[in-house]
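Why should sequence recovery work at all? Because a backbone constrains its sequence more than one might expect. Tight turns favour small or flexible residues, buried strands favour hydrophobic ones, and helices have their own preferences. The token representation captures these environments compactly. In the example below, the structure is given first.
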């Protein structure tokens, strides 16, 4: 029992390590592919309606140089005043070329907001919106403490149950298979007597007792010959 529990614990730990490594590898791969520390952003306001809806997920391409950004592009950037918020707006105009400075505006906003939409320089620029996944961002709102921890616990619990079920099924199969190669000794069912200890049938025994032995028959034959 202790051995099975130890093997089960090793299996669970191995699964967790594999999942963790897989997540890290995928995340690093996405960062390299899109050229930004965080390639995913969720739309949090309606300033870009109808093009972008609240909870849409944006995939941002950081490999697009700031110098190549043009009017009409939708970009993601840090708010110029304070760098305390990430904004996604459309480029409205190029204010200056040396250094390049742009002004943005939300499609649903009546005008550009100073300190938010301009002045945007290379320092504030994060990347250009490459893809939009509609409404998926709603799920990410659930992935905040403490809900995210609950989800992690559920995932780990599923892995534990899966591992236990696997071990249980293997044990049941080994008990059901009388020819399991792992067992060097196979016991006979209790209702089958051991070979070599079969009792003689009563009628057969009587017949055996009444039947003359070979010695007696030989003696009788000798007596008949002498006569």
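From this structural description, the recovered sequence reads:
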């Amino acid at each position: 029992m202790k051995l099975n529990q130890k093997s089960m614990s090793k299996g669970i730990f191995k699964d967790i390590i594999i999942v963790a490594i897989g997540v890290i590898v995928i995340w690093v791969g996405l960062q390299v592919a899109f050229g930004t520390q965080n390639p995913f952003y969720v739309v949090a306001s309606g300033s870009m309606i109808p093009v972008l809806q609240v909870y849409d997920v944006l995939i941002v391409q950081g490999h697009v140089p700031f110098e190549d950004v043009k009017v009409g592009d939708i970009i993601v950037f840090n708010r110029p005043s304070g760098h305390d918020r990430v904004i996604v707006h459309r480029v409205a105009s190029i204010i200056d070329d040396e250094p390049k400075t742009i002004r943005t505006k939300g499609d649903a906003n009546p005008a550009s907001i100073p300190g938010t939409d301009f002045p945007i320089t290379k320092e504030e620029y994060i990347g250009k919106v490459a893809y939009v996944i509609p409404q998926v961002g709603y799920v990410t709102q659930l992935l905040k403490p403490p809900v995210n921890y609950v989800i992690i616990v559920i995932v780990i619990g599923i892995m534990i149950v899966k591992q236990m079920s696997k071990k249980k099924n293997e044990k049941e199969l080994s008990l059901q298979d009388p020819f399991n190669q792992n067992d060097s000794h196979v016991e006979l069912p209790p209702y089958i007597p051991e070979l070599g200890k079969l009792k003689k049938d009563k009628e057969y025994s009587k017949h055996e007792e009444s039947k003359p032995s070979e010695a007696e028959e030989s003696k009788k034959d000798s007596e008949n010959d002498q006569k």
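A few observations help interpret the result. Confidence is low (pLDDT under 50) at residues 179-208.
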